[in-house]
Amino acid sequence: MKNFSVKSRRRLLNRSISILRYCGVFDSDPSVTMFRKILIYSIIIFSHSMTIIYGLTIVADAVVNCTDLMIIAYDGAIIAGWILIYFKIQISHSMRKKILKLIDDIRDPIDILTQSCDLGVLIVVKEYTIFEKIDFYLTISCAGLLGTVLITLSAIAGDLPCRAIFPFDTTISPFFEIAYFIQSYATTFNLVSLSALEFISLEFLRWMTVQFKILSSNYQNCTSKLHKPAMYNHDIVNGITVFNVLKIDDEQKAISSFTAFEENEIGKIKNGFTWSACLFAQLGGSLFIMCLNGYLIVSFSDNKPMLMRAIIYLSGGFLQLLYWCALGNELKYQADNLTTSQWMSGWENNYHGGINNLVTTAMIKTMQPLEMRAGGLFALKMETFISILKSSYSVFVLMTTVSG
């Protein structure tokens, strides 16, 4: 019963991992047959070959038309997205073992927390489970919408999805169909890989936040005279599915007991693996994508297919950056709240020799800032989001001024 429950809770996560195995980001499952392994490796080689060809042909177009600012802006937005996605794929592949280990380090304590009998704990976990589903379907929907617009609109217009220069004449058949297939396949591969990577990355932030939130309540509920440790109960976990957790008030969400879970996992999360380079590329890529597509929206206001494509690109970059910064901001808030929770733990009511030193030492540790950083320079928080929007607008104004 427990194994089934865990698998059910990790259904979306396991689905994303399976996608990344077929995309070559993660190694294939050791339990699959040799024929299936060969099939997966063939798909991986073919997909990466198409992606590299796709990117190089767009770069070639930008180089040949380097004097045309309009074409540079159009190609630049595509190239920025291509580099960002492929960079993420390669970094994630090189750290695949650490990522899979981190998934277990973060999700195993959550599986334990779902067995708590504290209603507040169960509601918190249930809430974030709903948010997890929203993240998954929103990520898939955005990627699907962007892919559909790029591929379908170009098919209707009889053009390629993106400007590109191939070593053959794409205006005649069957070379047009070959070029169209390469761009369509590469676009689909990139978007599917990105959506799976984004979902897993965002869920790291969400479930780390949950652990910090419950750890914070543990500090406030650690006085044994007032609270009893929570005991595991599967019936309560199953029963909470009938609740509409989004409408439950804050009083019901309050955690009233000390909840047992592997606290040493928090240490692993804090000092372990991060996507510093990926996050840095994410911020830079989002800046270029937003400012370049903003420029294209103004420049191609009379070209409806181009306008729609630029709007979706701009919206995707905006939403992606907003999600990262919002979740990073929440993680930082919950981590900062640990210091206050330790002070409110009631240590003064149980004063004995040495406890003040223990509390002080623990508070010094939690006073150190814990946040997701991009390249060790920029913290993922709402201030960074606003800063990038301002920078994108400044570049946009510069481009419109130069072209005008």
TrEMBL record:
Residue ranges crossing the lipid bilayer per the database entry: 38-59, 71-89, 136-158, 178-200, 277-298, 310-327
Record flagged with keyword Transmembrane: yes
GO biological process: signal transduction
Residue stretches in coiled coil: none
Gene Ontology CC, one term: plasma membrane
Domain of life, per lineage: Eukaryota
Keywords: Cell membrane, Membrane, Olfaction, Receptor, Sensory transduction, Transducer, Transmembrane, Transmembrane helix
Membrane topology according to the record: Multi-pass membrane protein
Subcellular location: Cell membrane
Pfam families according to UniProt: 7tm_6
Family: Belongs to the insect chemoreceptor superfamily. Heteromeric odorant receptor channel (TC 1.A.69) family.
The protein's name: Odorant receptor
Organism, as annotated: Cotesia glomerata
Taxonomic lineage: Eukaryota, Metazoa, Ecdysozoa, Arthropoda, Hexapoda
